[in-house]
């Protein structure tokens, strides 16, 4: 019996011996070439509505970024910008929360989110970030409203400025926790790049907030300052996007980006949402601020920010559905201990 | 297996009540809270009868998913789902040692060499990603070291579904809750062996205390190696494929004879929760840097 050759067992190739049953016979960067189970998905895709959840992630970033920029604007005596930022930040607690509850499959039990706090669950972390953000952001917006109604009183202004600080801190969480939420799953496209995705989402959030606030400004130094912030954020986003795509390729997940969702991500989020406004803003700033170009760039940033979130969800679904992608991702060379640790910039 | 001495106490064909610690008679293990229980699924003796699927559906009152033929060998269940907590996979091997594709080998090694069958189930991971992802606490570790969704708490956020590296947890869109194998939590509480393991006619599914099962499995691998099945290995025991990336061990583990992927199992799954901190830190650092840039830009506006 012992001379039975292992090669009698394999379907197409020689079957593996343990523990190299999982060994990497596949080349770097390639998809899984071995057997699949009738081509059936190995993973289940997230049961999220991509437009609803993507919409929330976009609003969370826009609101979080607005809270940050409004706190900074107030510090630098840009009072109109600060006011608009505080009001804009209310999008996530209001409309955003409604989208979140709407996407639950048992929405009448939304309050069960408040039963616990769990550090391993970014959705739980996010619940409490959103709660804190709603509290302080709502306070800042309410006090701003009071200050506008009672300009002769100084305390509402000061109190609004004080409430803005914790709101900005929570806003930083709002603009990034959603990336951690996606990364902390087994969906290959999200899990492959925890850091780059978070940098991308965070930069896009600041860019979206700067764009929205820029749209509310008259042409002038404030708008130029906001547009400069957008340029910096877009540059960071572009760098993170290129890092993300390189890592996705290294992890063998890039097959998931070849479909229509991937195309939408490249054209909508990277092309129209990042590169185009970056160019427009640079052109506009070179001219000392061109209102038309600035406005066009701002709308492109906002549209691109939404597209980034929705297409990230969509490509993730594709990566979960393709066994060639999920099996490749779940190979030993993608294990944290199997990978040479790279300590570079946060964008990696 | 030998008959337990206590079986002599129950000779009537009709019993007046439940047998106390029935699991001791059927699985040779007394179920005690605080200990670790699981399944050892030995695929080399699975005959693909699907008694486990049926027993699971009956005990847990689960409806049929899809009544039809898939064309994938005898597998018409397809995958684990909200309504199917056991799933028997069938892998037909059409290429033999001496044959062209599509021709079955006439010379087989022992034990399932031409036709693999595996009864898949929730792995009840030690560091369960679904549990770690659950924001409501609906998913919890029981006193038997198993992972269960509390149906009265789950609000159907669906986050456990992409969290699972094995594609086990599923959301039922009719009731809006997440469902998966409970390792028969209710039966364990009553001292009963889980329905699938009890119904398995070949003991391919073995229920028991985890250390005991793991030792039994190691022995079985050795035995198979001795019998010429050099490809036999364990999936989901500590350090083995399936129990990678900080998942710990799997309370429901398997003995396989082909690549994990052939059975629709991942070779090296990871623990998603380990990605939370790096992701958050990188994102917050980027936002902090951009906030400083904004402060500078606002300050120098002209």
UniProtKB/TrEMBL annotation, chain A:
The lineage of its organism: Bacteria, Pseudomonadati, Pseudomonadota, Alphaproteobacteria, Acetobacterales. It is a multi-pass membrane protein. The chain crosses the membrane at residues 51-75, 87-105, 125-146, 167-191. It comes from the Bacteria. It is found in: Cell membrane. This is Polysulfide reductase NrfD. Residues 1-31, 329-348 are annotated as: Disordered. InterPro entries: Electron_transfer_protein (IPR052049), NrfD-like (IPR005614). Belongs to the NrfD family. Pfam families: NrfD. Keywords: Cell membrane, Membrane, Transmembrane, Transmembrane helix.
From TrEMBL, chain B:
The chain crosses the membrane at residues 276-298. InterPro entries: 4Fe4S_Fe-S-bd, 4Fe4S_Fe_S_CS, FDH_Electron_Transfer_Unit. It is found in: Cell envelope. Keywords: 4Fe-4S, Iron, Iron-sulfur, Membrane, Metal-binding, Repeat, Transmembrane, Transmembrane helix. Residues 37-67, 113-144, 145-174 form the 4Fe-4S ferredoxin-type domain. It comes from the Bacteria. Gene3D superfamilies: 3.30.70.20. The keyword Lipid biosynthesis does not apply. PANTHER family: FORMATE DEHYDROGENASE, NITRATE-INDUCIBLE, IRON-SULFUR SUBUNIT (PTHR43545). This is 4Fe-4S dicluster domain-containing protein.
